[in-house]
Amino acid sequence: MTRFYNWRKNNKAKEKEFEILLSEGMRLVNETPEPWSVKQYGRRPYPSKAMVNICLLKVYFRMPYRDIESLIRSNQTFQKMLDLDRVPDHNTVQRAMEKIPMDYLEKLNQKLTFSFKKNNMMLPSMQLDSV
Predict the structure, then answer these.
(1) Which secondary-structure segment (H or E) carries 61?
(2) Three-state DSSP class for 48?
(3) Contact, 96 vs 46, CB < 8 A?
(4) pTM for this one?
(5) Burial class (CB in 10 A: 0-12, 13-18, 19+), 108
(6) Of 17, 96, 113, 115, which is most buried with the most CB atoms under 10 A?
(7) Which residues have C-beta within 8 Å of that of residue 69, sequence separation ≥ 6?
């Protein structure tokens, strides 16, 4: 007996999971102050809150930097949600990850966990981790 896996359904579920986490993460990040101050010289930086959300997705889904870059680059919806007019490359995402203060990440994680518990939400990846 041959089993067929429905990859289209799996991909749609994963995309929905990304959207849920991204929208909730964006809401919480927008409620918090900027994670770092912007320099007044050099190239125009990417929005710090958008970078935090990209890093949040990268960590939650355990993706390499190049994969998160290609995900954001290939999905116009995510680019619009993050309000990006250009997509940061993997090196920029890595530098942003190093730049985010640990106490900022701890507070964000605490708020995100509380929000999911409060709204009785659980993403499929969370269910797998809790087994």
Answers:
(1) none
(2) helix
(3) yes
(4) 0.78
(5) buried
(6) 96
(7) 87, 88, 89, 90, 93
